[in-house]
């Protein structure tokens, strides 16, 4: 187990390093000078050069990168060009909302997807199976912004049940969580159905059925428990989708989370904030998938890491 952990930690470090290089290069290849956003259209050439020197933007690109990474290793992701706050402070101020949104979305998506997938597998080739797969396909295919606008129109504007936008506690995160969770639910439903159908064909399922195991025990104790490993893997992978989806969802619902922060930072060419946020999100995705891998041994004792 210790050798496995060492290998995974080494792989995680290499992956984060690769992401940092990619993010840094892409950010600096985007046209436009961030100094112009800070000083405005009427800035003089002297003031632009002075600010570039103060921010270190006049240095060679490799020097800027290694300087940034040296600070990042020490926990310093830089300071926002626009707000003057450190990127770490910006993340800490915004992450509670994004964390809640991601948590509620993954709970909604997982429960809904697993239920739909189990029903589709148990009722294979029936109207229930076809309806479940149509719903899953809609959840995967429908654009997030379209779902968000539809839910706002129906539940906020027409029925006046939920707030249209802004953050005011759990109540204001229900529609965004459903919006973000529907795509996850669709993917999980399809994976659950496929995995359940593979397990149901196994000999031990027929044996349990022949011994008189009840339908509930047969489905949830014998079938779902052995079919859940691929589903858990998919749930871990969906965390990256949730981080990307949060950008659109938070923008539509005007939620002050990491997603809306990165949109604002990109539009103003706030390089330290964009770099810090992308690096932080990448690290979170890598850590979540690592934790999911460790959960395998709890879900299935036959899996052992050497």
Automatic annotation (TrEMBL):
GO terms for biological process: transmembrane transport. GO terms for cellular component: plasma membrane. Coiled coil: none annotated. The chain crosses the membrane at residues 12-30, 101-122, 134-157, 169-189, 227-248, 277-296. It is a multi-pass membrane protein. It comes from the Bacteria. It holds the Pfam family BPD_transp_1_N. SUPFAM superfamilies: MetI-like. Residues 95-296 form the ABC transmembrane type-1 domain. Its main location: membrane. Keywords: Cell membrane, Membrane, Transmembrane, Transmembrane helix, Transport. It is found in: Cell membrane. CDD domains: TM_PBP2. Gene3D superfamilies: MetI-like (1.10.3720.10). Belongs to the binding-protein-dependent transport system permease family. This is ABC transporter permease. It comes from Psychrobacillus lasiicapitis.
């Amino acid at each position: 187990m210790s050798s496995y952990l060492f290998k995974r930690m080494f792989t995680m470090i290499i992956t984060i390093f690769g992401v940092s290089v990619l993010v840094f290069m892409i950010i600096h290849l985007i046209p436009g000078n961030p100094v112009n956003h800070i000083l405005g259209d009427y800035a003089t050439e002297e003031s632009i050069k002075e600010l570039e020197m103060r921010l270190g933007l006049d240095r060679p690109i490799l020097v800027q990168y290694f300087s940034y990474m040296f600070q990042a290793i020490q926990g310093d992701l830089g300071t926002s060009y626009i707000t003057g706050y450190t990127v770490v402070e910006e993340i800490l101020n915004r992450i509670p909302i994004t964390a809640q949104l991601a948590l509620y979305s993954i709970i909604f998506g997982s429960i809904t997807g697993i239920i739909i997938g189990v029903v589709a597998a148990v009722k294979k080739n029936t109207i229930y199976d076809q309806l479940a797969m149509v719903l899953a396909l809609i959840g995967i295919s429908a654009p997030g912004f379209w779902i968000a606008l539809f839910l706002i129109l129906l539940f906020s504007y027409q029925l006046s049940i939920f707030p249209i936008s802004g953050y005011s506690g759990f109540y204001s995160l229900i529609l965004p969580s459903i919006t973000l969770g529907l795509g996850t639910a669709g993917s999980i439903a399809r994976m659950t159905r496929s995995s359940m159908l593979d397990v149901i064909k196994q000999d031990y399922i027929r044996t349990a059925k022949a011994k008189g195991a009840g339908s509930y025990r047969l489905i949830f104790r014998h079938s779902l428990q052995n079919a859940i490993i691929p589903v858990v893997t998919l749930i871990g992978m969906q965390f990256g989708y949730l981080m990307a989806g949060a950008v659109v969802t938070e923008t539509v619902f005007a939620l002050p989370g990491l997603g809306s922060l990165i949109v604002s930072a990109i539009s103003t060419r706030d390089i330290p904030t964009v770099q810090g946020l992308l690096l932080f999100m990448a690290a979170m995705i890598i850590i979540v998938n690592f934790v999911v891998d460790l959960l395998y041994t709890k879900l299935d004792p036959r899996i052992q890491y050497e």
